[in-house]
Amino acid sequence: MAEDKKIGAAVKTAEAFVAAHGKPARAVVENIGRAGARVVLVGDDGAMGDIVLPTVAAAEAVVAAVSDLDLHEWDRETTAALKVGPVHRRKMARH
């Protein structure tokens, strides 16, 4: 049941991301080990977001539940669609 609540909340978050950053949006599901899975969202405007879920299956269920959110890999087209701004670059530099 707890995973269902997390999936429901993640679907709402992903829907809001798509609404704010354009259709279609892309999603890349990454296995992050014991922490679960990360869904990296790439909006049509190039914005990036992410959601962490307990399992890869839960992450894939979120992507499947959101219309105008397409599952992708880190291919040339997906990486080219990203527009990483200076705020995000500074944040990444700290890690």
Commentary on this structure:
By secondary structure, the chain is α+β, with helices and mostly antiparallel strands. It has 4 helices and 4 strands; from the N terminus they run αβββαβαα. The chain has helices at residues 2-21, 56-65, 76-81, 86-93; strands at residues 25-31, 37-42, 48-53, 69-71. The chain has a 4-stranded mixed beta sheet, covered by helices on one side. Helix 1 packs across helix 2 (56-65). The longest helix has 20 residues, at 2-21. The N and C termini lie far apart (34 Å). The model has no long low-confidence stretch (mean pLDDT 92).
Topology:
Elements: H1 2-21, E1 25-31, E2 37-42, E3 48-53, H2 56-65, E4 69-71, H3 76-81, H4 86-93
Parallel strand pairs: 1-4
Antiparallel strand pairs: 1-2, 2-3
Major beta sheet, specifics? 4 strands, mixed
Measured on Cα atoms, how large is the radius of gyration?
13 Å
Strand order of the main beta sheet, please? 3-2-1-4
Globally, the shape reads globular
Assess the beta-strand content as a share of residues. Answer: 15-25%
Distance between the termini: 34 Å
Please tell me the overall pLDDT.
92
SSE succession = HEEEHEHH
The low-confidence runs, each spanning 5 or more residues with pLDDT under 50, are none
By DSSP (H or I, 4+ residues per run), the number of helices equals 4
Helical amount among residues, as a percent range?
A: 40-55%
> Count of DSSP E strands?
4
Secondary structural class: alpha+beta
